Amino acid sequence: MEKEKTCKCGFKLGDPMIVPKTRYSKQGFVWLSLGFSAKPIEVIFQCQNCEEILLLSKDEDIIEKYRYSSDIFNSDNIK
Ligand SMILES: [Zn+2]
């Protein structure tokens, strides 16, 4: 069995410290900031404590599930 991935402080997916954030393309982010709607390109599950990213998902179902209920990932942090 595959070992469940944890961040460096020991949290895993499903723990309250691991929160989903939606990430938008640059263009999508511009639309959002202008008050239009845009669709995230992916959902990031990130530890709030150490900021390690446990999972990136481009799955359409995951994106739909989180697009309206999640914080927006600050894309300036990703090169
Ligand atoms: Zn952590």
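^ zinc ion complex. The helical segments are 26-33, 60-66. The chain has a mean pLDDT of 90.
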